Please model this.
Amino acid sequence: MKIIHQGALEWVEEVAKKCQPNEVVWIENSEEEKKRLEEEAFSTGELVKLDQEKWPGCVYHRTHPKDVARTEDTTFICTTLKEDAGPNNNWMSPLTAYRKADEILKGSMKGKTMYVIPFSMGPVGSPFSKIGIEITDSIYVVRNMCIMTIVGEEVLNELDANGIFTKCLHSKASLDPKRRLILHFPEDNTIISVNSGYGGNVLLGKKCLALRIASHHARNEGWMAEHMLVMGIEEPNGRIQYLAGAFPSACGKTNLAMLVPPKGLQNKGYRIWTVGDDIGWMRIDTDGGLWAINPESGFFGVLPGTNKKTNPNAMATMRKNTIFTNAALGENADIWWEDCGWEPPQPAWDWKGQPWSQGMKDEGGSIIVGAHPNSRFTSSISQNPSSSFRREHHHGVQVSAILFGGRRARLAPLVCEAFNWSHGVFMGAIMASERTAAQYGAIGEVRRDPMAMLPFCGYNMADYFEHWLRIGVRMRRKMRPRIFHVNWFRTDENGGYLWPGFGENLRVLEWILARCRGEVDAISTPIGYIPRPEDINLEGLDLPQNNMEKLFKINHDDWHEEANQIEQFFKQFGDRLPTEMWAQLEGLRRRLDVMEEKQ
Ligand code: GTP
Ligand code: SPV
Ligand code: MN
Model:
């Protein structure tokens, strides 16, 4: 491979000097290279070859038991001014951050190979796309990056022509959780990650580049980098409309993006086209509309709960050439995770590598799970049966609707439409969700997660809200996507889900698209527009009586309490919060009062 980009060569040399690897290897993503790296990883145990008949081309990997999800407390935005990182981020001065990283990186690759991966986020040559170079000492990371991003000669050619790239430096170092640092230097277009081997912390093109660094640049350059799925919905008449949706980690983006329509709708001719399941980059095009691409080439999706019933497309996608992380492993080289739909292999080990069988309990009497709740699969998007033919299009797809959503056992209705763009931005800003295993912290606790970007916004979130408001003004009115809030996770008194979710969510999307086309009326409530009962198609769905009523109940006291919590949340941004956000909160309270007076 001929590398002629001087800046890249100099940086790689500088890093090699610091980390002192035995060898430096540039990754070109050939079959031969893949085989060689896998063989090496099999011999050290870094990767395990799975049963090739059942899982052709698939491998298995375990991360360190204390390294199984992103760690927000060790993630920093390193800007010159602390205020630029905002109360939503941990901040470190660039000087301190580089010094701390240097201490850890010094000699960290002794005896190891240093891999250099030039990659593109987004189709090479697209005005949306960004190039990065990741340096890593992990074969697992190399193999994941080759699936999650575009790697190969065309990227090097583009780099030579274009010149700009994000420096992404990763070293597992000693995997010491106490010395783990995920550092972002937006002003230098640089990322450094040390002492972790887990996905979101180390696949630096993903959350670090495509969200934290990109969101920072996007604000300065007038575009958007969002934690969003992007999907197309084809109706029986052949029309395809696209929507983008922001749900917090492990709240259903992957599932919605590749949903299989319920039988009735399928027979009518409905079809889903997946563009992306985690990240959306969006720009206002010359037509005044909002256009989105998915900068990723692969899925890094949640395993538990994924099966042939809930997500058949994900199951088909991961059938071959997939990396499974932190699932349970059988001696027969088969794998298993909770709710996968088949019997666990025996004998087997759990995700920690301990001997395991289903139903086993710990000393406290709690069930020991086979797979970690945040166990994941890495597969190429091209293997997804619903992969969109527009996925690699340089201009992306035009977005008709934006969805916000989360896990709310109470409070939020199944679906609700914003009155207008500013109210929609407010809807995004007040998002909250119950914590999942994708983040460290108390699972189930409700936390505010504006636009599902709290862990990913690379700058002060007050400025981020302002940026959203400005984007709305810049679009042509007729082209502006409508904004909705959805909640698939509302529960009844016994904690059971009121809505069946998964493929059935298409019924809600149908209403959303009908609203975007101005075809149906809606009911105005203090929190937004909700559907008239007759406008959600429930044909063929066996839903217990009253469920729809419960799904749309707006509890006045709960919403007043919510408004108080929103106020507290907003206060931390001080004067920097756009006044429009305060006006929106006041509007919400006023509408709640009016509703109370009427009752
Ligand atoms: P990240 O990759 O962490 O950003 O997550 P994600 O938003 O892509 O979440 P994903 O689609 O992987 O869903 C996470 C979990 O939620 C899985 O266990 C799913 O089975 C479950 N889930 C997804 N959609 C639904 C739904 O409509 N209803 C219910 N009840 N569960 C769902
Ligand atoms: C998330 O946590 O939102 C993910 C998984 O998509 S990770 O890439 O590990 O952050
Ligand atoms: Mn995510």
